[in-house]
Protein: Bifunctional uridylyltransferase/uridylyl-removing enzyme
Amino acid sequence: MKLDLDDRNALLARYKSRLQSGQAAIFERYLAEADAPRLLHERCQLVDDLLRELWTELCFPQSLALLAVGGYGGGKLWPASDVDLLLLLPGMPDAMLTEKLEQLVGLFWDIGLEIGHSVRTVEECLNEAAGDLTVRTALVEARLLIGNEQLFSKFNTEFRSNLNPQEFFHAKRMEQDERYLRFQESPYSLEPNCKESPGGLRDLQCILWIAQAAGYGASWQDLERHGFITHDEAQGLERRELFLQRLRIELHLHVGRREDRLLFDYQSVIAKQLGFTGIPTRRASEQMMQKYFQTAKTVTQLNVILLQNIGSAIFPSPKQAALAVNERFQCTNQLLDIAHENVFNQTPAAIFEAFLLMQEHAELKGMTARTIRSLWRAGVLIDDDFRQDPENRMRFIEIFKQPKGVLHELRRMNQFDILGRYLPNFGAIVGQMQHDLFHAYTVDQHSLQVLRNLRRFSETEYSHEYPFCSQLISGFDRPWVLYIAALFHDIAKGRGGSHSELGAVDAQEFCTAHGLYAEDSELIVWLVRQHLVMSSVAQKQDISDPDVLGNFAANVVDERRLIALYLFTVADIRGTSPKVWNSWKGRLLEQLFSQTRRLLRAGGKAPVTQGLVEERQEEALRLLRYFAVPEAAQEQLWKQLDTVYFLRHSAEEISWHARALHYRSDSAQPVVKARINPHGDGIEVMAYTKDQRYLFARLVGFFSRAGYNIMDAKIHTTRNGYALDSFMLQDVSGRDSDRNMISYIEHELIDRLMQQAPPEVPASGRVSRQVKHFPIKPLVTIEPLVTLQPDEKGVLFVLSIIAADRPGLLYIVAMALAAHGANLHTAKIFTLGERAEDTFLISGGDLGEQSSRIKLETELLDLLKL
Structure:
């Protein structure tokens, strides 16, 4: 029947009201009872009823059939999910039926359903399914809502007869592998997708789709009856599925639309909804996410077991004789297999032996499902007696010493909960989030990432990534001590107090218990305690200062420790987040390493200042001659520069400045030169002009407006009253056109310095979501610099700032310093993700008075609050 406008509006109002009131009641019951399966079933039933009644009321021909497909076909409908439908026809529709179908779909939308629909004949369904895995998967769960039962039966029979379980298995496995790649093959993203990420609901759906296609059922109980999983595993899957279902439902209800990402924006609210409460050392959201990561880890493990077991049934192969590896293990189809079901119960020491065998036998491509299952269950055997057994301790250390498979097997041990049971303190950090705004991984995954980076230094195929690190580790005796340090360096995160100190205690206990040589134990414990030091010195202190270098060398003591700390620091920074590392940080670390090694080889004594200055001047002169600068041309400029300038700049920088300024050291007009950073990414800029108030703020404002972050700044005032300032800039605009920007920077900056116009306020930008939800309390300190060079003028102070990074941060600091009449000498800009830790060397103005310094600290704290 064709509806007139009034009838259509009345029909629409009636069904829309029923849908809204029905869903509201379902959601209200869920909020009261937290019964996820009931919500999914009731919403599905509500939509079923509405669609059937609407189909009947519109008098559709009995020859047609309306099918639910996809997730809706499986009998589960999420609060914000699409309703996937198939309108099945016996033949091609005529114009009248086409119009009627279009009217039906329009009504579905108008009453408030988000419809995903297709209109096909049986033949068209088969053709589409043959060429499209998504269509084929959706049709696996097809069920008849209303209409022609014979037509549905015909479709179902022909679809099943054309569905090849082996092809479907291969296709779904490849699809899962591709999906894993999209999520970096890790369940441990800090903002995971609870549906699509590894360990999410899609992993469970994938198992059941394959099982249905092969005729093994559509539930965990069905798979248990077929012997693919045990009763305990089936119950475990149900519990974890229930947790993931609740997460996804809460996301949909909280956001009010289809949203499957557990973004920081939602984690705190959803944690509260799920009943998590914060404690002094851990937020409610951190506890919820730790449970999520533990759930995802278990789901990925069961996914492996089930797909391997189902795959063995779908692809029956001729029985091959297993090759004995030893009395406890055998090789079956290139997989490590236990000789019998009670191997680990009878010989708990075989737990570590299994991982060692994987390292020692290159022909082994993995483990059989029953070995994985047995290892997983064997975790309960790891008790104090197991941990104190000398054989087990020896085997655990041997895993680190093997030439191959160290990372792979430690990851496997972590996946099977073996690692956390053997090292209970490591178990406490499994799945633990780090809301420090720069770590992109959970604590356990970060530790394994650091170990991964250290391993890559020693592998030939990766030697092009960090040639210097590869060169250093190739001559480093017993590199496995670094891997143990990697496992322990963050093991005390979340306990309160210094995680480096607490971790060093854990490392010492481990080394003593495992009988490591004193030299190796001392290095491991020292690395855990000092793993943040090199990064801090390189990026926050003036490494041109002989005293800074001398103190660092005294802490390091010898070259083996220095090499170990350098390798560890590079691996650690690289293991925090892809955003944190850059070539500038790499250059600073390498510079600190080279200078310290030279100092240690010279006996560890701090170099004499005058000798350093002469050395740099001689090298700069050599470079000037290379560029055909006339002899003695630099003398007029150098007379205006003091010792500090020559200590803080490299010979190459001194030469560059001299080439630009030797003939205009008393220029009335500003001189600005820019060039591509000779040591990495970004642009280096030199500005030379008569000193002026608000100069640093003017420069900062200009660079920010031009789309650059300042990575490093060296501010110097010459004896004749000129400012000679150097900046290392990094493009944050995404235009990737540093070379094209050089002339713009030189021309425009000269123009602004000549005009001495008010500093440009940097363009405002949005504060990141992470900073909004996990704010950093600003910290500002001003302390006197104790050790000075002989010709430093006045008293210098170190201004340290920790705050959430944001557009205009440096501009705020510059304006505050200018208001107090303070002179800036150096700026160390240290950014870790969304966290800024900047250090400034300042003097002059009213800083001599303690009350003025306190006032500046207070002002900056107020300005840095978000």
Observations:
- DSSP finds 39 helices and 17 strands in the chain.
- Residues 788-793 have pLDDT under 50 and may be disordered.
